[in-house]
């Protein structure tokens, strides 16, 4: 990684910085539960997004690619077609980068906004969809803090390879009443792909929620392992299935859309409505041999002491609980050899000493030295 050895002798502080990096943590991966527990899952790659503190105009720099495609109503089999547009993806960080709640830059809930627009006069409902840049996610624990829109939309947090190979958590606003909600949990099958609806799928599970998903943030999570998938709401396991479990690498996704289909999204909404994502955290293995080889290299002999445990988020991430833990914000040493996209330092360690700052000095120095 660092190839400028010649200058090292002159700068002993760099060696200090190097040794700090070398003494990094988590070389042997990230685990759900302690590695000493009978049941635990181990993963070697991560991608974390702290959208409460992420600004900018290009979400791809943060590991997500906005999807741009249109479907006619003949394709959606619904009253409306849909258009997915980059313009419907919007960053809206907190005004105060030091805090985890409070006013946002653009008003309303802070986080990444996925807008469904109220104007569908041309027969298309504009919405938003994002796919991970990485397409090699094979097994993992995928978590998002989200609050969905209203007025007839589908808001989803999912993993996708193709229409018949998909792990879905879908919030349909039509399923909510005054005080409670529901979420559709499904592993799509070739049958549901052919029918364009999850209704015919034997793994469709409608989970009752004792809250309104459009009124506060909650953590939606699925842990996908060989042979089974378990879905979680605010850290509580609610449903496990062993049918149609994918076995290939693919993408994680999020979207917010409507086609006016009375049996699914309902709507469309008559005014603009956003699904807001406060964070996305993914811990996963890879179908890319370069990534598994990199893991073998940094963890040649498995050592549980070099595994970092991923804490469960058991509280709905609102207000005082909106401050959640990010491995990537807990000192630079905890993401050895990770393909991290542009990172946002969380409010908790904007002024972190240690490796974070060493790292910046390091990078700044070499960029300058190489000119
Ligand atoms: C973590 O531990 C709990 C409690 O023992 C268990 O129910 C759960 O299945 C474990 N999770 C994983 C992913 O192993
Ligand atoms: C992820 O890969 C590591 C290293 O090969 C392996 O030990 C672990 O069991 C894998 N995790 C899952 C859930 O398959
Ligand atoms: C957004 O960022 C990606 C990744 O850095 C880059 O490839 C792309 O050109 C950028 N797009 C725009 C519109 O700047
Ligand atoms: C989708 O349709 C809209 C009009 O509704 C058009 O402006 C846009 O260019 C189309 N996008 C694609 C990718 O075809
Ligand atoms: C909302 O729906 C749940 C079942 O999903 C039901 O138990 C509850 O009574 C309903 N509440 C209201 C206010 O309609």
UniProtKB/TrEMBL annotation:
GO molecular function, one term: hydrolase activity, hydrolyzing O-glycosyl compounds
InterPro entries in the cross-refs: Beta-glucanase-like, ConA-like_dom_sf
Gene3D superfamilies reported in the protein's UniProt record: 2.60.120.200
GO biological process terms on file: carbohydrate metabolic process
PROSITE patterns reported for this sequence: GH16_2 (PS51762)
Lineage: superkingdom: Eukaryota
Transmembrane segments: 350-370
Keyword check for Membrane: yes
Annotated keywords: Lectin, Membrane, Signal, Transmembrane, Transmembrane helix
Presence of keyword Transport: no
Signal peptide residues on this chain, from the entry's feature table: 1-24
Residue stretches making up the GH16 domain: 60-288
Protein name: Concanavalin A-like lectin/glucanase
Species: Massarina eburnea CBS 473.64
């Amino acid at each position: 990684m660092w190839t400028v050895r010649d200058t090292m002798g002159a700068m002993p502080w760099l060696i200090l910085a190097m040794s700090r990096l070398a003494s990094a943590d988590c070389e042997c991966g990230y685990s759900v539960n302690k590695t000493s527990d009978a049941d635990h899952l181990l993963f070697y790659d991560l991608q974390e997004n702290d959208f409460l503190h992420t600004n900018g105009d290009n979400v791809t720099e943060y590991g997500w690619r906005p999807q741009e495609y249109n479907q006619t109503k003949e394709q959606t089999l619904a009253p409306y077609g849909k258009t997915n547009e980059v313009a419907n993806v919007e960053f809206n960080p907190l005004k105060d980068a030091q805090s985890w709640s409070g006013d946002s830059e653009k008003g309303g809930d802070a986080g990444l906004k996925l807008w469904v627009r109220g104007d569908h006069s041309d027969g298309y409902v504009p919405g938003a969809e994002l796919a991970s840049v990485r397409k090699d996610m094979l097994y993992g624990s995928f978590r998002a803090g989200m609050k969905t829109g209203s007025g007839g939309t589908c808001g989803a947090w999912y993993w996708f390879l193709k229409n018949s190979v998909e792990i879905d958590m879908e919030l349909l606003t039509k399923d909510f009443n005054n005080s409670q909600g529901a979420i559709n949990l499904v592993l799509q099958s070739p049958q549901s792909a052919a029918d364009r609806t999850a209704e015919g799928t034997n793994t469709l599970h409608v989970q009752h929620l004792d809250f309104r998903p459009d009124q506060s943030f909650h953590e939606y999570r699925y842990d996908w392992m060989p042979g089974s998938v378990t879905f979680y709401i605010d850290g509580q396991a609610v449903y496990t299935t062993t049918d149609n479990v994918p076995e290939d690498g693919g993408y994680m996704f999020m979207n917010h859309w409507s086609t006016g289909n009375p049996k699914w999204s309902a709507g469309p909404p008559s005014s603009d409505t956003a699904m807001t994502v406060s964070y996305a955290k993914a811990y996963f293995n890879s179908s890319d041999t370069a990534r598994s080889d990199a893991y073998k290299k940094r963890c040649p002999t498995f050592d549980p002491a070099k595994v970092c445990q991923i804490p469960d988020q058991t509280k709905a991430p609102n207000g005082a609980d909106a401050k959640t833990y990010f491995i990537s914000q807990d000192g630079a040493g905890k993401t050895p050899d990770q393909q991290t996209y542009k990172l946002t330092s969380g409010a908790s360690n904007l002024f972190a000493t240690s490796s974070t700052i060493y790292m910046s000095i390091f990078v700044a120095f070499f960029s300058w030295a190489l000119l």
